[in-house]
Amino acid sequence: MNYTEYIKLLRYFDNYLWDKKVGETNYNYNGLILDAYFELSILSIDYLDIEDFFDCNGKFKYDETKLLSEQFKEVKNPDKKLKLIENILNIFNLSSYNTEVSETINSKTLVFLKRNRIMINNFSNGFLALKYNNIVDEGSYCSIIKVHEGILRKELKPFYRENPDFQKRMKYEYENMLKLHDCPYVLNVYGYDSETHSYLMEEADMNLHEYITTEINIPFEQKMKIIYDVLNGMKYAHNHSIIHRDLHLGNILKLRNDFVLCDFGLSKDESIERSLKSSSTEKNNHIFLDPLAIGDFKKLDKKSDIYSLGKVIDYVFTASVDESKSQHLFTFVVEKCTSRNKEKRYETVDQVLSDIELKLKEQNRELDKKKVDNKIHKGIFDMQVSDYILRLVRSDRLCDYLVKHKLYSFGNIIVQFEKTDQINILQTINYGYIDATGFGQFHNYDIFARIAYFVCLNTDESKIFSIAKDILEGCAEYRYNAEDYLDEIEKLNL
């Protein structure tokens, strides 16, 4: 249990135990009411008082006037932390005082401890004993043991320790991961022990499956961080002639702010003429395995890793293995990675990264375009709007844009340009507005009539006025509104 979790648990106890108390002289004060539970327990028979109990069981100096999280915050030793929690739980467990609260605290705390890999022994006399469960995880042939904070040991299970094939497999996995030690996206390993056939490695926070299923609303930027870390890790491995052959969510770990690859137990170094055989038994994570290799493990190659990468990308963005839900920004990339025609898959991880970059640039352009569209609708004029409008003018797409977005108030944008640009914009409209209205879509003339009318009212340049009035006269042939605008202009002697 790390320090944060330890303090979290003590604060949980404090929430129930910190209350008003009355001293022997009727003095009122705030303090811990754990002594009330202690006095109505069998522990009070064997100990003078609660202070004596804590002193005899761990040499703790208990002070009822301080919160547990304050007076014991300096306890760093893992065994002492466990002993302190064990003492508190035993008081609750053996007390007849407010049993409903005791049962609530005990039940929640025991779940919390199990989550933190702490085993609970419940003896027949009612006493609880806590101890660390050092087995962090188990695979088919090995166990992951916690050595101390931040360090784990991967070792063969007793049944496989004398088996030369599994000894070789363990050593081979270690050697391949050691070759990748300079890559920040591969888990660090060290200290291989040829007698126990084990090695040490960094301790991660959780695997990718746990992270995706427990984290709520992972932001897009974090999803991209996951994808880039995994792709760059596999790129480094492939560039060093190592293929993973067993990439899935359980073999991608969250290590602080990074996501790293691990478990190269089925990896293959293509630079040397040897490999590890494996049965073709379907694994729990078979959905990430290249289907073209099911039944013949030797068919797994770099393109099989590409397949697995595609499935990982898909899962990160959908949290699902249901292909019908696989619609997201990188759907094309996923489909190319996982094509059943191996020839159509990406050749390298670099190609995957390249297409992801292209999709991101496309998305950014779309996002920028939406921002510009929004500004134009609101009549906001800035450099970004100016550049965009002038690009539409140069590509002769301005009229279509005005119709598509129903920009009746676009005249307000035009008059904010320099005079020469106003002339160019109006000339572009004058040349193209008839075609842009669309066959039979006479109501679209109202858009251009409103624009021209606004410009006529808000310019003192004769040439600009002349072009705008020309547009208005053309629209008046089809729309009564445009005729009314012309009448108003003439009444104003414009």
Automatic annotation (TrEMBL):
InterPro entries: Kinase-like_dom_sf, Prot_kinase_dom
Protein's name according to its UniProt entry: non-specific serine/threonine protein kinase
Protein kinase domain mapped to chain residues: 130-434
EC number in record: 2.7.11.1
Record keyword Kinase present: yes
Signal peptide: none
Broad EC category: transferase
